User: What shape does this take?
Amino acid sequence: MKYPYDKGFRKVAFNMPFSGWMCKMTHKPLKRMVDRMKPPKGISLRNFTIPGYQGESIDVKEITPENPSDVTILFLHGGGFGYKTSPGQFKFACEYALGVNCRAFMPDYHLLPDYPFPAAYEDAILTYQYIIENAAKLGIDENKIIVLGDSAGGALAANVCNTVEAKGLPMPMCQVLIYPVTDDEMNTESMMRFTDTPLWNAKNNRKMWPMYLKDVTEEARQIAVPVKNSLPQSLPPTYIETAEFDCLHDEGIAYAKYIEGVAECVEINETKGTFHGYDILSNHPITRDSVKKRIAFMKSIMDNARKT
Assistant: This one.
């Protein structure tokens, strides 16, 4: 089916297959591509490892601008819990670090098909915990952490915010969820409609969840699926971005309603003429506007923190 998305996105409007085999086949090439990238001017890059799921090490990229503030971004990349960080996501992490003037950490968390839930979730929590435990050494404030994620990374970002309080860890100062995955029921109108949209669609989504939630208990499912998470007493300011022709569109709006009254505030950016992952075309005017809004939201939270 044809969808009236913005014509400028045609060059990236391809179908992205999703399967365990496909994910695994791309792991090494994507890692090589990102590892060979040079950070932009004004950014320094440090690669290190930390203990992750079941003690297995995970690679983490620390992206640092010149004279950074004491704020930190934990960037959890998307990819259906199965694809590694893309070059575009790495570029965005650098842009956020420069725009917000703070460090950004990108963990290379464990992926499908070999590592279903809770591997990625635990890696995300352990990276968050590492940042807190090393705050003094890193020159950051453990109470000034922004958790940001796109797509499946948005699910992990929401999971972090919803569970850190129960783990005795400080709450992030805000969360930024970009076209997030939030519900395994997959019964929304947008999930019914957008079965063949570019980059990601309902067909892929219906393959992803059973693979990610393989053999989980109902209790574990409630931890993995954001809209089923037990919410803490309060959540920080939240930015949620959706794409118009995206099977996940309605989930993003439903999640905003789910946390309404618990989150300090919820800002929704419903982009138009877009499909899931539209910002792979980083120079498109709609993408540039969205990136400005993401950065503006994070900076506004920083400014408010300075006033209190």
Q: What stands out?
A: The first helix runs from residue 20 to 35. The chain has ten helices and eight strands. The mean pLDDT is 97. The domain at 7-302 is CATH 3.40.50.1820 (Rossmann fold).
